[in-house]
Amino acid sequence: MSSRTVIRGGLVITASDEIHADVLIEDGRVAALAASGTPAAEAWTAERTIDATGKYVIPGGVDVHTHMELPFGGTFASDTFETGTRAAAWGGTTTIVDFAVQSVGHSLREGLDAWHAKAEGNCAIDYGFHMIVSDVNQDTLKEMDLLVEEGVTSFKQFMAYPGVFYSDDGQILRAMQRSAENGGLIMMHAENGIAIDVLVEQALARGETDPRYHGEVRKALLEAEATHRAIKLAQVAGAPLYVVHVSAMEAVAELARARDEGLNVFGETCPQYLFLSTDNLAEPDFEGSKYVCSTPLRPKEHQAKLWRGLRTNDLQVVSTDHCPFCFVGQKELGRGDFSKIPNGLPGVENRMDLLHQAVVDGHISRRRWIEIACATPARMFGMYPKKGTIAPGADADVVIYDPHAEQTVSAETHHMNVDYSAYEGKRVTGRVETVLSRGEPVITEREYTGRAGHGVYTPRSTCQYLN
Fold first, then answer.
1. What is the rounded CA–CA span in Å between residue 296 and residue 218?
2. DSSP E strands, 343-397
3. pLDDT at 41 over 80
4. Reported confidence tier of residue 73, pLDDT bands at 50, 70, 90
């Protein structure tokens, strides 16, 4: 039995076009678009009709940086794949790419299998995996080739967190050389972790233990230095590079310089760096701990440079780095020692709305909103045009978005499994109304109609921006 849905009367927005069109969905895919009111569109019949008059019809968001159930700092991220993907759907995101973790002394395969076991049968939306490479050796390098062949085409390395995820320059170079051969994309957490650890030790010795010192020791210059070093190592290896969660204007400058030289270097930022600042880290009564993430929040003057980077395409993607820890019992582990606060904050449900607010505020255009949140992440990680657009043949991951509805962001009303909101009390214009995942309604007029297990694992091709 085939199933058909027609979405009528909305403004369809993709990265390249805005058109008043009806959308025909058949068997989980977009079958056709036709200008609203034309005979072609009027002739369509379907079991389900959705009236999108006065609304936007946009591709489902693609969030390529989430950490569900991540073990960190003696605890675990508070969102499971079930709660996290449900919250993502509420926020208009229909695909996530999460990070499977290789533990030191173990194989990539063991890490990947463990993450498949966490996710399978639990996700409300489709998902894929990147692989965190913590232990570079000859076996790991061979495994990278095998993973690329089976659709895990990106590998994350850390210049930060010595003793946990850290790789030295030699390990990074070997992995980059391998990815240059097998087509994989290295994703880099670019902060000089060795130097940062010295500054942490010195700050604690001075009695500087509050959350705000987290931002002060993880200096912007050490993000810029690591970004520069990662770019040069990638250049030596002849490999592409994707720098995750860029927060500092000095790091943006390094990316811009590399791109001006024609290098295949890409940059991602996150809503927290665009909307929050060190002012939040300095909130009294340990409230600042809610905003501890790495790279850290920066002083407000960095925000303008990040927005500019998004407009000039020196930054191409906005992901969330969603890694929630509850204030009570988790963030509180760092009372009296900021270095023990679990790093990460919640955001998978807020990204599409915050970026729409950026459209309202004049930072970016509507099409650029879709580009940085849907199309480019899908292309960057080998999922386009199956994901990230509304076009014949694409998966019917479609959001009906009300651009005029007003809402106040709050932990009282969000669906993430965490006891605070990083954007508590922020008023935004625009709200998700209905979400389809492969043609199935997951959110229907602000009601959850999805189910755990609807979301399926999505193997990916290699980065679609490379020659």
1. 7
2. none
3. yes
4. confident
Contact 185, 217 (CB under 8 A): no
Give dist(CA 254, CA 268) in Å, integer.
Answer: 13
Handedness of CA 122, 123, 127, 129 (dihedral sign): negative
* Per-residue pLDDT at 1 exceeds 60: no
Residue 401's φ and ψ, nearest 5 degrees, are: -120, 125
Average pLDDT over the chain, rounded to whole?
A: 97
Determine which helix (DSSP H) or strand (DSSP E) holds 128, and give its type and residue range: strand 126-132
Q: Look at residues 94, 113, 109, 181 and name the one whose alpha carbon lies nearest to residue 140.
A: 109
Placement of tokens 């006065």 in the chain: 54
**Nearest residue to 221 (alpha-carbon basis) of 187, 190, 264, 263:** 190
Query: In this structure, what token pair is assigned to residue 253?
Result: 């400058």
Q: Looking at residue 269, what is its pLDDT?
A: 99
Q: Which of 222, 217, 267 is nearest to 245 (CA)?
A: 267
Task: Copy the structure tokens of residue 176.
Answer: 């980059």
Q: What is the 3-state secondary structure (H, E, C) of 430-441?
A: EEEEEEEECCEE
With CA atoms as reference, report the closest residue to 463 among 373, 383, 369. Answer: 383
Instruction: Measure CA of the first residue to CA of the last residue in the chain; give whole Å.
Output: 41
Segment 19-32 mean pLDDT: 98
Rounded Cα distance, 91 and 442, in Å = 11
Categorise residue 461: left if φ over 0, alpha if ψ from -120 to 50, beta otherwise: beta
Model pLDDT for residues 428-460, shown as the tens digit of each residue: 999 999 999 999 999 999 999 999 999 999 999
- Omega before residue 209 within 30° of 0, cis: no
Report whether pLDDT(465) > 70.
yes
Residue 164 has pLDDT above 80, yes or no: yes
More confident: 406 or 467: 406
In whole angstroms, give the CA distance from residue 243 to residue 381: 13
Residue type, 95: T
8 Å CB contact between 61 and 55: no
User: What is the distance between the alpha carbons of residues 102 and 100, in angstroms, rounded to a whole number?
Assistant: 7
Helix 220-237 crosses helix 249-260 at what angle (to 10 degrees)? 20
For range 184-200, the mean pLDDT:
98
Joined tokens for residue 274: 């665009």
C-alpha 73/C-alpha 82 separation (Å) is 22
DSSP conformational letter for 385 = T
Separation between Cα atoms, residue 56 and residue 329, nearest integer Å: 40
pLDDT digits (tens, 9 = 90+) for 300-334: 999 999 999 999 999 999 999 999 999 999 999 99
Show the CA angle centred on residue 463, arms to residues 461 and 467, nearest 5°: 115
Asked if the model's pLDDT at residue 467 lies above 70, the reply is: no
